[in-house]
Amino acid sequence: MMRGLMQDRPLMISDILSHAVAAHGDQEIVSRLVDEPIWRYDYAACAARVAQAAHMLEALGIGPGDRVTSLAWNTHRHFELLYAAPGIGAVLHTANPRLSEDQILYTINHAGSSILFFERNFLPLIEKFRTRLPAVRRFVMLSDAERLDPGEVDAESYEVLIAGYSTKYNWPAFDENSGAVLCYTSGTTGDPKGVLYSHRSIVLHGMAGGLSGALALSAFDCVMPCASLYHCTAWGLPYAVAINGCKLVLPCDKMDGPSLHELIVNESVTFSGGVPTIWTMYLAFLEQTGQSTAMLNRVVIGGSAVPHAMAETFKRKHGVSVRQIWGMTETSPIGVLSTPTPQLAAMGEDQLDEVLWTRQGRLQFGIQLKIVDDEGVELPRDGESAGRLLVRGPWVIDSYFKSDAPGADADGWFDTGDIATLDRLGFMRITDRAKDVIKSGGEWISSIDIENAAVACPGVRVAGVIGVYDPKWEERPLLVVEPHPGATVTPEGVRTFLSERITRWWLPETILVAEVPLTATGKVDKKRLRDTYARSPMQVGA
Amino acid sequence: MMRGLMQDRPLMISDILSHAVAAHGDQEIVSRLVDEPIWRYDYAACAARVAQAAHMLEALGIGPGDRVTSLAWNTHRHFELLYAAPGIGAVLHTANPRLSEDQILYTINHAGSSILFFERNFLPLIEKFRTRLPAVRRFVMLSDAERLDPGEVDAESYEVLIAGYSTKYNWPAFDENSGAVLCYTSGTTGDPKGVLYSHRSIVLHGMAGGLSGALALSAFDCVMPCASLYHCTAWGLPYAVAINGCKLVLPCDKMDGPSLHELIVNESVTFSGGVPTIWTMYLAFLEQTGQSTAMLNRVVIGGSAVPHAMAETFKRKHGVSVRQIWGMTETSPIGVLSTPTPQLAAMGEDQLDEVLWTRQGRLQFGIQLKIVDDEGVELPRDGESAGRLLVRGPWVIDSYFKSDAPGADADGWFDTGDIATLDRLGFMRITDRAKDVIKSGGEWISSIDIENAAVACPGVRVAGVIGVYDPKWEERPLLVVEPHPGATVTPEGVRTFLSERITRWWLPETILVAEVPLTATGKVDKKRLRDTYARSPMQVGA
Fold first, then answer.
1. pLDDT tens digits for chain A (542 residues)?
2. Closest Cα in chain B to A202
3. Distance between CA atoms of A288 and A542, rounded to whole angstroms?
4. Contact yes or no for A393 and B91 at CB 8 A
5. How far apart are CA B328 and CA B369, in angstroms?
6. Distance between CA atoms of A369 and A392, rounded to whole angstroms?
7. Is A360:A202 a contact under the CB 8 Å cutoff?
8. Angle at B179 between CA B173 and CA B182, to 5 degrees
9. A210 touches chain B (CB under 8 A)
10. B266–chain A Cβ distance below 8 A for any pair
11. B137 vs B108: CA distance, rounded Å
């Protein structure tokens, strides 16, 4: 090769904020807080406080490579830490308060953090933990001075700690592959695994996220992330908004309808996103109060599939476009996003909506996807062939933090654990989790497709499908449906309903009406379903 | 530092095209050609031919680090070479046919290219050159088989050469800092200097170019680059369109009104860009024929300042937004782009247009600008202080190809040779070329500002300002105005006109009515003006 002669200046997170100040320093950031009034400043004032926070971290003995933990909501102070810690070469571990207490403890200790920043309402939890956090030297409450409650951990006030430091910081440039933010997966089995994002991965992910085929952000947008900053940095929005000059609204942990609506209306929010549950609550609030969505024009939904009725209501009643996002902690998280293309639009609006609402999304520049069979052979992108979904790219994990757990393979492909199809138009659809897939007579049956068909059956509240042993076909699907309270549902009724809607040979021989166990995040708990039904074949025939 | 654990997969140009195929393989590319019918295919078919071209290059003995030269217009074959050569690790030198013949020869020999790809209409020039291109082994005409004219150089047909090769190529991943495309500056003094773009710089530049604050590209755009592919890859558009899934229309060298209009209407072009001259011709065509601009909604203008009347006509008469772009070969070229912000929009439409049409543009993510005084001290971003404009970033030059000419300084700052202001809203305005700036009594006078004011004077066709020696003030401005044919212009009339429009102490003591020499690209030739007027002080008092 011949070396190019352009600057190989590293991609630095600090340059994102410096750009925001120089290009749109007046743009606002608004933050709801725990028991404090709504906070309001602009990128220039934010950058001044980020500089102070950087000086504060150094004064507390934090240097390059050191880890600090945040246990925090979507607030401006959390946003500041997402720049201050990486800015000095340290790593911010964004602890996930939705994990079990033992898991939260595990991640803080595994990260090796020496300072714990936390919101006021986590004080009781921190007090309970304190003796089990040997490496933590300082406890800092994300609070002003007057409302500080030191508790049993001698917590200090973030505001007191940063006050007095210079509002300038001469941000260093260093290796762009240095770690910046550490997030743990919330897998249901085993210990959480750490994913250590680098400056390079965060900057590239932030640039790609703003493109029109992805989140389509502009300086005219007001962005309110309802995905949590501790969940893969809320889809990278803290960085993408600064790159694109968007106004930013941070809703703290107040995801109820009235609280979100207040911000959407008062701050003229144009863009928001989060898990379906939030939007179910919000639409219910709008329905009850007869309110409208003001300037809101798009909602990106991730975490679970978008319910069709939700997308329909947003569109028809409020003129709001619903888009899906799919990704994982291991993919930073942007994998695919369901945004329109002229080819799709040419098929007519119904077809367009059908694709946008039922596919997880379309390919994004910078991340590569392929599907392979059990032997690792790539399958065609025909929208029909389903295989293990592998991903690769500069914001995809290479290996887990301090772990021997396998990351990407030698060619950089990371196995998502999902089974999916890809089509000619660049759209990806997940048909199953690999561990849930049912192999029957050598062919795959999608448990998700059967469940989706079953919940459309009148009276059915939730449906779960697992594979059970079958001497002839190896595996066959078993379906458990739980009715809405008061509704009457029979196995025969469900069978008749399904027989018109799914491939004949997918039809489960066994359909049971019973309670369907759910996980803490509201998904069907397949492990418990298997424990109950798959291991006692005699009962299955019931 | 602690190393992050994401993949450090290199940014490769070949991944741009692979993405285009997977995500929007059906999107069209349309190309006008020299004496061939209009060509039409899609990204998938294009990628197949790029693979064939890569095999062809290898078969001709081209390997990593080797250089090949194109002397070509905006055509699909040129587009293919912009992917094929870098894809195999070679370097494409895009020779600039607008340079003098000696300079074209110089750049091909300086690049050390062993293959020369050229459009049919360059055959006479190539025949003339042939004995002075010792390193060139093969001459390839960008032509189909039937229209091939081998001439005296035994030219081969591109189509014949690529035919028969596999339409698949297993693109290698290698160091992203490897050279990919080589462009020479067209400076008026000395030999042209080579700028060697890397895979990294091109990919990052292409990603940034698509963002809403820059070119704002989407899959619903049809992009027709009228800037030349040989001029810093037409603003990176060949890469940005593939990243964003735009339809691409290539106008060859046919920049006349009727030819452009045909493509704009027939292909539903939404976005175009180029130097002001092209748009002057196009607007005149529209005026003469009473035609409208169809789907065209934005025109980006670079190379010279946008004439106010042009921006006004595009906007009021055709609903087309005019945007300025400023950059240099050394900046890939995106430096700044004039796109709206909510802060500007809030000032009202007149104020918004005034800023968008008179500033060179606003800061873009990825590239940093600062202005400094003669001692290198940074000046405030107040819209008033003018200083030397320095730029830095991953698509800014580090050093010139095979040259000792200075590139960037130790901190990565490249001196653009321009004098500019920066303002609080992130906009940059060039007030002068550093070599044209007039220093009077220790203060700077902008020759450009005086010229712009003078050409607004009735009867004035073109105006040129230079600094001349003054025993008291060190330098004072001297203004030469050339009237429109038949118009009567007097020095007194110009002086009265100017006195109400520029700072009093800027008013030139000497105003001459005479012919103003222009360069080959239509700019005022300050060197000749100085030769004529600045070196004969006695004459100046005339």
1. 899 999 989 999 999 999 999 999 999 999 999 999 999 999 999 999 999 999 999 999 999 999 999 999 999 999 999 999 999 999 999 999 988 899 999 999 999 999 999 999 999 999 999 999 999 999 999 999 999 999 999 999 999 999 999 999 999 999 999 999 999 987 656 789 999 999 999 999 999 999 999 999 999 999 999 999 999 999 999 999 999 999 999 999 999 999 999 999 999 999 999 988 899 899 999 999 999 999 999 999 987 778 888 999 999 999 999 999 999 999 999 999 999 999 999 999 999 999 999 899 999 999 999 999 989 999 999 999 999 999 999 999 999 999 887 789 988 999 999 999 999 999 999 998 878 888 888 778 888 889 989 988 999 989 999 999 888 888 899 999 999 999 999 999 999 999 988 888 899 999 999 999 987 667 888 888 988 887 644 443 33
2. B6
3. 44
4. no
5. 13
6. 7
7. no
8. 140
9. yes
10. no
11. 12
> What strands lie across the sheet with B510-513, from one edge to the other?
B460-470, B474-483, B510-513
Count Cα neighbours of A440 within 13 Å in the Cβ-side half-sphere: 22
CB A93 within 8 A of CB A65: no
User: ipTM score of the complex?
Assistant: 0.90
pTM metric for this prediction: 0.90
* Residue found under tokens 């424990």: A531
Amino acid at A60: L
B-chain residues near A67 (CB < 8 A):
2
Q: How remote is the C-alpha of A528 from its chain's centroid?
A: 24
Q: How many CB pairs below 8 A link A and B?
A: 268
For residue A363, give the nearest of B2, B23, B426 by CB distance.
B23
Q: B198–A243: do the CB atoms touch at under 8 Å?
A: no
For residues A179 and A65, the answer to whether their CB atoms sit within 8 Å is yes
CB contact under 8 A, B363 and A23: yes
Residue type, B446: S
Look at B426 and A24 and tell me if their CB atoms are within 8 Å. yes
Q: Is B26 on the interface with A (CB under 8 A)?
A: yes
- What's at B471, amino acid-wise? P
